[in-house]
Amino acid sequence: MKEAPIICLASWYPNEIDFFEGDFIQRKLKALSFYRPVQVLHLKKCTHEKWNKKISKNQMGLLEETIYYKKGGSGIFNQIKNYWYSFKIHNIFLKNYISTFGQPKAILVQVPYNAGIIALYWKKKYGIDYILTEHYGIYNDRYELNYSTRSSIYKFIVKQIIKNAKKFITVSHSLASDIEKIVIKKEYTKISNVVDTNLFQHKVKPQTDPFIFCHLSNMIPVKNIPGIIRAAKTLADQNINFKLNLIGGENIPQQQLAEELNLKDKFIFFQPPIPYEQVAKELQRSHALIMFSNTESQSCISLEALCTGTPVISSRAGGIEEHLDESNSILVELKDEEALARSMLEMIRNYDRFNQEEIAFKNQALWNYNQIGKEYNQLIKDVLSQ
């Protein structure tokens, strides 16, 4: 019999509708696949011609299956119909898996809602344990649609999924602490996100003038882009020679704010989302990364910046602080735009104090595929051996 892959049910995963959805989950599972085969199943609701389409990809030890199904309306009937379809597809998947490999002792779940509902059902019906990883930073009041604002049903389901997990993984201690405060106290293991250190390597920064800052994200409100823009205005008013690249979104109000402040295409330059490989190049040619989020469960882009030796300016937003210190960053308080402006100026004037090569060397050892895959695999081995 073939070596049985471990099943992973993923609530988020890259797909043909959104190439960036859960790409950090894909990288983490790729890291695990260096140690054991992994079979991923992701269901994606959609509103176009991909209905009932199944796409399978096999990357070395990582087999990915994405199934697209029709997105229903908001009514209770459509929700029931969606859940019924999801249970049907997952049970067919499990039946086919068992016919080839036998019943799994444990599976993986990435993000509790929705995939965790299936895992909880399988645990109750078939006795299959699950290892749950949470990435979602909604467990505090700084996130706009945070956990406390969700429906009672949503909160009950998420709590049950976390409670019944055989092992619980979070990407930061901060995220675990937030969950403990408002959901449930649960023993956990921290396993970080992963960085492709073949791409994110140190290169000597170009001797350019102006000084180049960059920010890369999906530009959602929690990233506090207006705060970054207003801080940049302070530097521009002092005739500081700098450039700020805001990459990853098409947010019109943010662009309008930059234009109103006479910054757009002079000091601030907006770019659409770029491929993962291009992110590495952008960091390598930038002098510093700016993150001014209201909350971060960890922040993949800050890990990636450090692996290129690029220092970070960041708000004290939770999980992001756990890998930043005086040697590689400048930290400011949440929403303190004056402090952010001062930190940007400090970064420009005292840039030589950051040993970029040392920053890169230290962080590449922590977040590479082999290291994170090893940590993840060891936890799975411990569960399967019980």
How would you describe the overall organization of this protein?
The two termini are 22 Å apart. The chain is built from 12 helices and 14 strands. Helix content is 39%, strand content 19%. It has 2 domains: 6-194 and 369-384, Glycogen Phosphorylase B (Rossmann fold), CATH 3.40.50; 211-367, Rossmann fold, CATH 3.40.50. It has helices at residues 23-33, 76-101, 115-126, 152-163, 173-182, 225-237, 252-260, 276-285, 300-307, 337-349, 356-367, 369-384; strands at 6-10, 38-46, 54-59, 62-70, 106-110, 129-134, 167-170, 189-190, 211-216, 242-247, 268-271, 288-291, 312-315, 329-332. It is an alpha/beta fold. It is globular, with a radius of gyration of 22 Å.
Task: Please write out the topology.
Elements: E1 6-10, H1 23-33, E2 38-46, E3 54-59, E4 62-70, H2 76-101, E5 106-110, H3 115-126, E6 129-134, H4 152-163, E7 167-170, H5 173-182, E8 189-190, E9 211-216, H6 225-237, E10 242-247, H7 252-260, E11 268-271, H8 276-285, E12 288-291, H9 300-307, E13 312-315, E14 329-332, H10 337-349, H11 356-367, H12 369-384
Parallel strand pairs: 1-2, 1-5, 2-4, 5-6, 6-7, 7-8, 9-10, 9-12, 10-11, 12-13, 13-14
Antiparallel strand pairs: 3-4
